[in-house]
Amino acid sequence: MKYFLLLSFLTVLFKKAKAGKTSPFPSFHGVIKTAHSIDGRVRFLIPKLKNNDTFDSNLKDSLTKIDFITSISTSTISGSLILEYDHKNVEPFFLFLTVVKIAGIEDEIYSNKDSKLSSELNLIKESASRAIYEKTHGMLDLKSSFIFFLILAMFYYSLNRNKSIMPQFTLAFWLFNLI
Question: Fewer C-beta within 10 Å: the chain N or C terminus?
């Protein structure tokens, strides 16, 4: 029982110590990911490298000219780039920026990307718009039907003689922002 408690305690400490370690190299989803790094060695995963022999040879040729990089290994099957470098004379972030610049992926890093949820919601919106368009034989789509609904709601609230005029202003605001 004592050994079990000691082993559990050491396991918790190890997990906390391991969780606290972070890589000095950043990662950008879908562009470049730091798979593993230790002092003097780093492995990047670059999707652009997969099945791209031309990019592979150009990247290797350019990186061999850098004097603080001692060894280069790539795999076009997995899209990985393994670099061994002089960790005493170069900062990891500088090495990362060098790889990004030479690989020509800085535009991909700074480009705006839609999340998967946003892409799926846009597909749902387009499908609903197309369904309304087909059902009304080209008279309405999703946006125009929503505008039509807002106009009807404005008339309903004004004819209903509601003492509050706020719903009409809110609906008019939505309507003018849609148009």
Answer: N
- The CA distances from residue 96 to 7, 113, 116, in Å, are 38, 21, 27
* pTM score: 0.58
- What is the C-alpha to C-alpha distance for residues 13 and 156, in angstroms, rounded to an integer? 66
Q: Return d(Cα 46, Cα 78) in angstroms, integer.
A: 9
| Residues 113, 30 contacting (CB under 8 angstroms) | yes
Query: Which 3 state secondary structure label does DSSP give 102?
Result: helix
> What is the number of residues in the chain?
179
Q: What is the pLDDT of residues 118-168, one digit of tens each?
A: 889 889 989 999 999 999 998 988 888 888 887 887 777 777 766 666 676
Sorted by where each starts, the structural domains of the chain and their CATH numbers stand as 18-110 (3.30.1360.40), 116-178 (no CATH)
Strand-by-strand arrangement of the 80-85 sheet: 33-38, 41-45, 80-85, 69-75
Q: Which string of DSSP letters, residue by residue, matches 40-88?
A: TEEEEE-GGGTT-HHHHHHHHHHHHT-TTEEEEEEETTTTEEEEEE-TT
Who wins on pLDDT, 93 or 15?
A: 93
